[in-house]
Amino acid sequence: MSLEPTIDDLVSRLNDDDPVVRATTVDALAAHRDPSTITSLMWLLGDDSLWVRCNAAEALGEIREPEGIDPLIAFLKL
Fold first, then answer.
1. In this structure, are residues 75 and 57 in contact, taking their beta carbons and an 8 Å threshold?
2. Residue whose C-alpha is closest to residue 42's, from 75, 18, 19
3. Residue 76 confidence (pLDDT)
4. How far apart, in whole angstroms, are the C-alpha atoms of residue 1 and residue 5?
5. Which of 1, 16, 38, 58 is within CB 3.0–4.6 Å of 21 for a Cys-Cys bond?
């Protein structure tokens, strides 16, 4: 039995009220480099926390999926 959270577990943590939880969860998702998380990460580019937004932008850059490029560029132009 693995103690490692699944991608679905991690994605569900992105809705946590604590920005520290959201930011560290983004880091965990980035380490997986799973393209299925692109939509969730793009959504976080509008998070209230600057830390979460920056982590989400970095994660999108690391995953390197075409779907995440335009939202990442728009975020960087802000």
1. yes
2. 75
3. 86
4. 11
5. 16
- What is d(CA 4, CA 67) in angstroms, rounded to the nearest whole number? 27
Structural contact between residues 57 and 72, judged by C-beta atoms closer than 8 angstroms = yes
Give the whole-angstrom CA distance, residue 47 versus residue 54: 10
Give Cβ neighbours of residue 62 (< 8 Å, ≥ 6 apart): 30, 33
pLDDT for 1 beyond 80: no
Tens-place pLDDT, residues 12-65: 999 999 999 999 999 999 999 999 999 999 999 999 999 999 999 999 999 989
Rounded Cα gap, residues 33 and 62, in angstroms: 7
The CA distance from 5 to 64, in Å, is: 22
